[in-house]
Amino acid sequence: LSTLLSLLVPAHSSGSPDCGAILTPAGLSYRKSGPRFSRGGGREGRQRHLPAPRRNHINSVKVAELSLSLIPDAGLRLSIDVDLGTAPAPSTTKVLRLSILADLHVEMNPEGNLELVTSACKPTVEEMQSTEELERSTPRKSSGSDVDKEINVDKICLEISKLLLLPHEQLTSLTAQFPVTPSCQVQYLPLAAPVFSEQGITVSLQTTFQVAGMAIPLPGSPVPFSMPEPASSGPSHLTLAFSEHFYTSLFSALEVAGAFNMTILVSRASKENNPPSPRQTASLFQEDLPVMLQAAFRSSPQVVLEEGKAALKLFLTAHVGAGSPAFQSFLSVNVDMSAGLLLRVADTRMMISAAAIEDIELSLAASDVGPVPAALLEEFFLPPIRAEVPAQLNVVLSNGVFLPHVSSFTYTDVNVVIHKDYVLVPCNLRLQARSG
């Protein structure tokens, strides 16, 4: 299989997006509720590593405000206000307000990962008369020479770049390979740097699949996909979008991986009860044997999205035979069927399940036992196919498919909306607590 796959064109050569995400201003401003970072006399305080003053001792640090805002067509602006309690003399305490404005943008590195980069940084320091005046008076801005004496502003921007190490790790995790089955993995690759607008940050992604560690080619999308315009009044933190082609590619990859190869028990063959024609098949077997149906795809599955519903179309060839372990096929049946798909999201996975078969058609492909009437095919094979095909599909799909996400975040308050040709998933973000 590896040799065969290595001869094929890589799946990502077309460079066409099939899914994406829009991080809204609400998602950008999302933060975990709780006390702001501070350090003082309490044990619950958390030390923030900031440049120490040249001559004074910092005895308290309080992050008064931290915000991240969009700059359309450019990037982000990070704003941090930090109150520093300093002790210039043993009996006095002075409070400095350190304000930092940093402009950020996102680039794509040669490895295809997104990187958050500082493009501008401006720190300023304002001197407060006392701790009490911090809450009731207007700050008094100190002179440039005083600022230089109190705190080393040259090191501030270096510290800001250190704050970006965790976001770098999280952005890199976006392009990780996620397992679909033991032999099949999915990966989401950004095609370009994100687009910044008043509506949010838009990222276009292309899905690739690996089988046995090799990227596999998939049918190209007949219609180019672009992220739908977000609803201006939407309160969600994030909106994920998936094209019809994304779902077709998923099922095609699983079919290439052999995940949907299935064997269905039809009945037991005997001289008294032999499907599909007792007289024709009784002479083939001298003892009771199980009659099995081995199904394989004769063409790739297709997913069709309409308003409010999704359907999976399967095109199978079912080889009917008996014998175990040596399978002897005596009949081949073409099976064209359509099953409804149910979509929901749990954590960071899309859970997909096949519902009842909506439409099915059987036709004789080959026979070693002579002509077989269509009514006889339906009588013997429709019931087990209707029952077993959705059941075995759902076993394969039971673990779900990882959605594009970065580490430490999960999705909550999810709503899956199916439109013609694409699926929207508006949701909120939830930051998981980090241990240690």
Automatic annotation (TrEMBL):
Entry-linked InterPro entries: Bactericidal_perm-incr_a/b_dom, BPI_fold-BPI/LBP, Lipid-bd_serum_glycop_C
The Lipid-binding serum glycoprotein C-terminal domain extends over 232-427
Name of the gene this protein is made from: Tenp
Task: Report the GO molecular function annotations.
Answer: lipid binding
Region annotation Disordered: where it falls in the sequence: 127-147
Cited SUPFAM superfamilies: Bactericidal permeability-increasing protein, BPI
Q: What is the lineage of its organism?
A: Eukaryota, Metazoa, Chordata, Craniata, Vertebrata
Kindly provide the name given to this protein in its UniProt entry. TENP protein
Can you name the source organism?
A: Cochlearius cochlearius (Boat-billed heron)
User: Which superkingdom heads the taxonomic lineage of this protein's source?
Assistant: Eukaryota
